[in-house]
Amino acid sequence: MSAAKRIATVAVDGAAFYFDRGYSYLVPDELAPQVRRGARVTVPFGRGGRVRSALVLSCEDRDACDCTGYKTIATVYDSELCDSPELLDLIDYLKESTFCTWYDAAKAILPAGAGVHIREYLQLTAPDTAPRSETEARVLDCLAAQGGRAELRALCRQLELEPGDRAIAELLRRGALLKTAENRRRYVSDQATSIAATAGFSGKLTAKQQQLYQLLAPCGNTGMPLRAALYQTGVTRSVADRLVRAGAARYFEQYDYKEVFTVESGGEQPVQLTCAQQQIAADIRGRMDSGSWGCDLLYGVTGSGKTVVFVDLIRHALEQGRQAMLLVPEISLTPQVITRFKKLFGQRVAVIHSALSVGQRLSEYRRIRQKEADIVIGTRSAVFAPLENIGLIVLDEEQESSYHSDSAPRYHARDVACWRARRHGAQVVLASATPSIDTYYRAKKGEIALYQLPARYAGAQLPQVQMVDMRAEMAAGAVEDLSRPLRRELQKNLQAGKQSILLLNRRGYHTSATCPTCGAVAKCPHCDIPLTYHRANGRLMCHYCGYSAPMATCCDNCGEPHLRLLGAGTQKLEDELEKALPGARILRMDTDTTASKNAHRTFLEAFSRGEYDVLVGTQMVAKGLDFPGVTLVGVLGIDNLLAGTSYQSYERCFSLVTQVVGRGGRGADAGRAILQTFDPKNRVLQLAAKQDYDTFATEELQARRYLLYPPYCHMAMFSLSATQRESCLQAGRALMEILGQLATGEYAGLPLRLMGPTPFLVERVGDRYRYKIIAKCRKDARTRQLFRTAILQLAEQKKLFGVRLAVDFWPQGEI
């Protein structure tokens, strides 16, 4: 019997869902100790042998006689997941529940940038090879002109060939060319070179070497970062190299942690819990002590002190020797939250969100892995933090759609949090002043525990809300976006030395450029959406694909020389405020002004210090912020949310209005709010003005029961896109037929209602047409198997290649 060989089953990067399966590769003996489940490797894949990243799913030993014909794993470049069975099982969970590939799931769990960039090269091995075609001659001549070696893709671009061109494949087969690959890390390593002196060294040193040695000697074995040592002594790297060669010092690598958020510990005043807060905290602490997992809803009005309860529960988790996680929906919320928790818990807090640099994210990931941080605060992706003993997971503002990922894997952070809590026997606390209707329904049914804080902390009152009828304003001749009542209140607030917040959920200056003669609107050439005028750069911009163009001087349709700018965004509102409030210090926060690193923190800290009088922005200023000096809140342009295309439009409008109104009156002074609308009698707006969530939720549930919408069913959306409208529509019809056949055949009895295919409201984005199929269904394993079978059958129709398909069980858009 021949010797056994190691075979690894891997999932490759870049695989479509329908061919995402395990592929077997031979493990070289020298790599065998590193190749295990969870390792990331590079492998030659496909007929052309293109090198790809891959995730090892399993390994087994086979008889060498059964291993002929297998391709061989090229390199091992990452083993972050190998030592965490939980995160490996989480990959399987994401693949099964969200219709993503194994590799997509792995990339979601690992920190951004923890991959490699693979570069393939062609090298001449036999320069005298006689070409058999004109294309072969071009390839050989081009390589010879570049010294016999060139990057494959660069060479193909130069020659206008595909990397898998037949001529290149033939030259490789005949041995005229050799293809190699190099792995390059996508990030700058978070390891830094340090240097330490050798104790007791008595050899001869130069003056500069002696200077460096004397600096290092008191540091002992811990040494110091090489860069710092060179900086402090003023010597060059060559001096340090010679010191090491002389045996007087040694180099070693250590992690160079990049500080994410510098806050001085202490200074946070202890807060006395109210009786209601004490009772809620005690109940949840008892559930944490039981060691069994559970899910709770903490529903409290804005300013009721939910964060104080979080602090108490997190402290209890740490006292148990366990770890905690606090998720927030927006990057804009993290500065205030992190500041508070770092003052309380210092370096035990790690931060994870997309605005951090790659190096910072990797540093925080390492700190968590090495148990130097046991509290994780962050946005959606922080739910994958590699904590090993979780006692508590909190989702603040749990109703927010940003907890859902709209790219593969299309998961909801709430689902992942519950999955991990089951694994650890932890408690999940969902907190909000306006819970999602689904969560509220589950709490009322008793599926999860319900805790309520119906009053503001320390007896503070909710703001008084005034509705302004914008139809009456227009009839009275008002042409500005700021109504007269809001303008007066802003002036009063400014004179009183108080701060104000204005919400307008549209960025830019004007929302469209329209021809007054023919009515044509300037549109993006790649998307079916009007361009938005941005005064800051004088350009028309697409908020979908990023296309921009200079402001048009005439209408493309009829030649009219004067286009009319209609609608208002945050930039235009900022201009109006400057005219209405001379001398006022105005701060605008939207995705245009907060694109730079640390912009959120810088702006919010400045506003908190009183350096600005008015904060105007999009919905990033509406939630979770706590400024005691704010006594006036204004809400503009809210009617467009009521006219949304989703069954969740009323819920989102109610939540946004309630949340932003709740930013006012959180200090010693009473708050007030002004809500501008063209429909002041609208039931949703009236209930939001009263902050009457219970009545709103009851009425919304009645409507959804009648129309059969969640929580009385589940929703899934199949999204199809293609460069040709007809291909997209054809694929949608074929999928509808397949789903119908399966639902009446093999999967008969499953509740399923299908609608579509229909175009998205914005049918074309980035030169791709988009259609959708909506399914009302039950979210269980059998339904997912039905969908999986349908996708695989659709993939067999080769005429539909090029059509992209995605399935989402938490669709947030037009349904």
TrEMBL record:
Alphabetical list of SMART domains matching this protein: DEXDc (SM00487), HELICc (SM00490)
Keywords for this protein: ATP-binding, DNA replication, DNA-binding, Helicase, Hydrolase, Isomerase, Metal-binding, Nucleotide-binding, Primosome, Zinc
Record's cofactor remark: Binds 2 zinc ions per subunit.
Record GO cellular component, one term: primosome complex
Entry's EC annotation: 5.6.2.4
Keyword Transmembrane helix: no
Cofactor(s) this protein requires: Zn(2+)
UniProt keyword annotation of Metal-binding present: yes
Enzyme class: isomerase
Protein family (similarity comment): Belongs to the helicase family. PriA subfamily.
Protein name according to UniProt: Replication restart protein PriA
Organism, as annotated: Neobittarella massiliensis
Gene it is expressed from: priA
